[in-house]
Amino acid sequence: MATLVLVRHGQSEWNEKNLFTGWRDPDLTDRGRAEATAAGKALKAKGLVFDHAFTSDLSRAQNTCARILTELGQDDLPVIRNQALNERDYGDLSGLNKDDAREKWGAEQVHIWRRSFDVPPPGGESLKDTAERVLPYFRQEILPLVQAGKNVLVAAHGNSLRALVMELDALTSEQIIDVNIGTGEPYLYQLDTTGAVASKEILANT
Predict the structure, then answer these.
(1) How much is the pTM?
(2) What is the rounded CA–CA span in Å between residue 135 and residue 192?
(3) Structural domain of residue 84, as residue ranges?
(4) In angstroms, rounded to a whole number, what is the distance separating the alpha carbons of residues 56 and 71?
């Protein structure tokens, strides 16, 4: 039985400013760096050692991954970076304050763009679109490693990880709307050789 760990990056500078981020590339805040370090400590306390690590093409996820591996004493573990694990592209909303967006388009419309499964914001991706690039990469590059008994770390983003949680937890498009992954919060899945989930644990980031 191998372990797949999904971790959302720590708080970013744009999370702190309440801005839509998407594919833009702000770094972690001091709090975000502390959250990443805390995630590493929590995983170390579980006795986890990783065979492989994956992250997105964005620095906030890469730096979170690096801090986790440092805490585990695995700085030398090669990390695979791929755009397929990037955050959802918020298109025209990227860089906008969420309150300003609500004033411009209305709170109801912005809520639909943020939380619906298949309604994209202007020029951007829906969660469905995000899943359509995340899941093939996961099935081809990551899942076979876990099925082969390897422990794998994936440090990515709220929506790219929601796409994976939807798949792993067999959630419907209605159920995934209510799932929110906290910054720096590790999700631990144990998978059997068929890729079926045997257990799941969420480690609170304190």
Answers:
(1) 0.96
(2) 18
(3) 8-139+163-202
(4) 20
